[in-house]
Amino acid sequence: MTDSAKPTLMVVDGHSLAYRAFFALPVENFTTKDNQHTNGIYGFLSMLVNLIKAEQPTHLAIAFDTSRHSFRTDEYPEYKATRSESPQEFKGQIPLLQDCLAAMSIPVLTKEGIEADDILATLASQGAEQGFEVLVVSGDRDTIQLVNDDVTLLYPSVQGVSQLKRYDPATVQERYGVRPEQYPDIAALVGETSDNLPGVPKVGEKTAVKWLTQFGSLDELIARADEIKGVVGGNLRDHIDDVRRNRKLNRLLTDVELPVGPADLVVTPIDAQAVRDIFARLEFRTLLPRVFEAVGAGEVADDPASVVVLPTPVEVSETDLATWAAAQDGDVAIRLATQGVCQCASVPRRRARCASPPGRMLRPMHFADGSSPTRRRCCMTRSRR
Predict the structure, then answer these.
(1) Angle at CA 331, nearest 5°, toward 325 and 335?
(2) What per-residue confidence (pLDDT) applies to 298?
(3) What angle do CA 65, 20, 202 make, to 5 degrees?
(4) From CA 302, how far away is CA 308, in angstroms rounded?
(5) pLDDT, tens digit, for every residue of 281-322?
(6) Largest Cα–Cα distance in the chain?
(7) Element (H, E) at 12
(8) Which sign does the torsion angle of CA 325, 328, 332, 333 carry?
(9) DSSP secondary structure, 114-183, as one string
(10) Residue-range domain boundaries for the chain
(11) Domain 3-168+253-294: which topology?
(12) In which element (H, E) is residue 367 found?
């Protein structure tokens, strides 16, 4: 099967990317009238819409962590212990983001005691075995180990999630000097500050790559640690247990038991009304048409609640119109028609000019019940949002 004929499975780390989006967008610019902060949601969905449009996945899922507790914290209680609490403004955004994804008919996957990256790893492994072209979207460098000929990593190249760099095996080799499956060996030696996994003192990325190139594998390096001379050799031998622990913890699981497999994650039509409802609640106006376009829903249909039903107009003489306008207090709104085209406009008392074309006097009309339109939009009656 050619690559172009393969189905495309996209799996996304929802929590890590929403967190990045939160810090990339000013929180004060994304707050609803109910004081709900939405910058993380908006940034994540903007990224997702762009990805769907660009990559056209046939299958899609978003994975989330359930809590900071996992089998890794059971193994090593200090794992990620130095991470600060999530900002108050970020709290509550993940459940709302998941509501948005549910409305968009995108599967959300979680598992107690399992991190999102392990869910991605399992689906990526299964997808590659089942003939999918797999795209892993994550801001965690541990997912580099998943890259192979069938799995490509899309990793944020700058702060936020607006730009994603593609990592295939050649890109990983060029950037880190090792094969993708060896990246966790580098991390085990150097350590990972964000996960609170200390490495070998005075050993950086270059030294780790040098050793792995020289000895071929981390296991061989450990077995022959006595051959490493100098201070760093002594440090390696003193911290062998840390290296082994790090390598055990940064290995992603590829056999997590999940309720679905890659074939179950086929992209399905969104619930258009549910999307409108949740976006209205979050006050996402400009994002709505982008979502509809990306998922192939076509134009955004009129929201029945936004349609204004106008009374039936009747034609009157200019004298009658002038008499009616003179009796009104302040500005009035009238509906003007000419040659089959009508306009709605708010006009000063005793004047009847159409907004288009500018300044042109028209034969006026007003409503038989004396009422006027509540909107300033044209006769199609669709209100502005």
Answers:
(1) 65
(2) 43
(3) 90
(4) 11
(5) 999 999 999 999 888 654 444 444 444 444 555 676 777 777
(6) 107
(7) strand 8-13
(8) negative
(9) --HHHHHHHHHHHHHHTT-EEEEE-S-GGGGGG-BTTEEEEEESSSSSS-EEEE-HHHHHHHHSS-GGGH
(10) 3-168+253-294, 182-249, 305-367
(11) Rossmann fold (3.40.50)
(12) strand 364-367
Q: Which numeric CATH code is attached to 182-249? A: 1.10.150.20
Tell me if the pTM is above 0.85: no
d(CA 80, CA 195): 4
Look up residue 216 and give its amino acid: G
DSSP-derived letter for residue 334 is: E
Is the pLDDT confidence value at 12 over 80?
yes
Q: Is the pLDDT of residue 11 over 70?
A: yes
| Segment 154-171, tens digit of pLDDT | 999 876 777 899 999 999
As given in the structure block, the two tokens for residue 112 are: 């107690």
Residue carrying the six token digits 């990593």: 153
Task: State which H helix or E strand residue 10 sits in.
Answer: strand 8-13
| Cα of 299 vs its chain's centroid, Å | 21
pLDDT digits (tens, 9 = 90+) for 347-357: 333 333 334 34
**Residues in the chain, total:** 385
pLDDT of residue 314: 62
Residue 377: which pLDDT band, with cuts at 50, 70 and 90?
very low
Q: Which two tokens stand for residue 42?
A: 């908006």
Count Cβ atoms below 10 Å from residue 224 Cβ, excluding itself: 12
